[in-house]
Every structure is written in structure tokens, then in C-alpha cells.
Specification:
205 residues; alpha/beta; Rossmann fold; 7-stranded mixed β-sheet; two-stranded parallel ribbon; 6 helices; globular; DUF938; SAM-dependent_MTases_sf; DUF938 domain-containing protein
Length: 205
């Protein structure tokens, strides 16, 4: 078997994120992770949040690596990765266990802005009232970076893909509002990141 994929960033930030998810997801049962990456977060969080069923998802190219982490863990409360295409309606594999929480880490600055919009539209269409949504990553505030390293990271992202880049929190909050999400907290995290925590409210439409 080939070596499992490994992300040092995931290894570094998993405990600070878990410290917050422990209370934020205390009343939830079924979490959908958008962009599971290596699978490290999924295994770590499922291991410590045993009351949750953790549904992984990513592009097919990453499924093999995620499955290596899942198979080695042998955890019963974590599900094999599904494909979530942000341009399409998200597949809900277990209709008897509705998704009542969503987690994503380091995704919104990687995908294009139209897909960020689709991400929030997907939340509006697929998550029910009361669902908790946690988004981890770097953001700008009033157009300003929170650190010089984030500014350098943004330049690197745009050189790699002109459609990517660190997003303005104000733009994210507009999209969140359109999906009936109420910001519960904006936690400052290590390495100049944030954990945005939302709760889905009743639609006014």
C-alpha cells in the first residue's frame, strides 16, 4: 500500500478546531465535510466526536487517499467519501439521517468565486433550519489582510489560479445572509486563520 497522503497544516490545526467543534457540534448528529482533502481532519474529529456520523466528500482524485485514512482508522462513525459538485445538488446518501451540520477547511480561497456562491446556495438548499456550519480558513477584513504572510499567500494563490484568493469576510457574510445563516462567532485561530460559525435560521421567503 502506498503511503497515506499527509497535510502538515491539518496536523497543526486539528486540535484547536476540535476544541471548538466539541461544543459547536454537541447537539448535532450528521456532519457533511466539504473538501475532506487527505482525510486527516475527518478521522481525528470522528474519533473524538463519537456521537457524530462524519460524511467525507471531495473530488474523485482524492478519494483513494481519504479511504486509506478511513480504512486504517476502522471507525464506525465515518462514511466513505462522496462526490460533491458545487454546481449540482449535493447528494444526501442517507435520507434517514439528515445532514444537520457542515464543516469545511481551507476551501473558499481555493475554489473560484462563482463556486463560493454555489457553496452557499448548496447550504440554502440542502441543510435544514437549525443546522450548524463551520468554515475554517483565512479571510480579509475591510479589504485588509490579517498578516503579511496571508498577503503573500494570496499572491501565491493568484499566481497558481487567478480565480482563487483570500476572500473578504464582508462578501462571505452577504452570501451567508442570503442562505439564512446567522453568524454565531468568528473565532481567531492559529496561523492567521479564522473559524466562522453559523446557524441556519428560518427562511423569510
Amino acid at each position: 500500500m502506498t503511503n497515506k497522503p499527509f497535510s502538515q497544516a491539518s496536523e497543526n490545526n486539528k486540535k484547536p478546531i476540535l476544541n471548538l467543534l466539541t461544543s459547536l457540534f454537541a447537539s448535532n448528529k450528521h456532519v457533511l465535510e466539504i473538501g475532506s482533502g487527505t482525510g486527516q481532519h475527518a478521522v481525528f474529529f470522528a474519533e473524538h466526536l463519537t456521537h457524530l456520523t462524519w460524511q467525507t466528500s471531495d473530488l474523485p482524485i482524492n478519494h483513494s487517499g481519504i479511504n486509506q485514512w478511513l480504512d486504517e482508522s476502522a471507525l464506525v462513525n465515518i462514511e466513505k467519501p462522496i462526490i460533491v459538485d458545487l454546481n449540482e445538488n449535493w447528494p444526501i446518501p442517507n435520507k434517514a439521517l439528515p445532514i444537520d451540520a457542515l464543516f469545511t477547511a481551507n476551501t473558499l480561497h481555493i475554489i473560484s468565486w462563482p463556486l463560493v456562491v454555489k457553496f452557499f446556495e448548496g447550504i440554502a438548499h440542502n441543510l435544514s433550519e437549525g443546522a450548524h456550519i463551520c468554515i475554517y480558513g483565512p479571510f480579509k477584513y475591510k479589504g485588509e489582510f490579517t498578516s503579511e504572510s496571508n498577503e503573500s499567500f494570496d499572491l501565491w494563490l493568484k499566481e497558481r489560479d487567478k480565480n482563487s484568493g483570500i476572500r473578504n469576510i464582508e462578501d462571505i457574510l452577504i452570501l451567508a445572509n442570503s442562505a439564512n445563516l446567522n453568524l454565531i462567532n468568528d473565532h481567531v485561530m492559529p496561523a492567521n486563520n479564522q473559524l466562522l460559525c453559523f446557524r441556519k435560521q428560518t427562511s423569510n421567503k
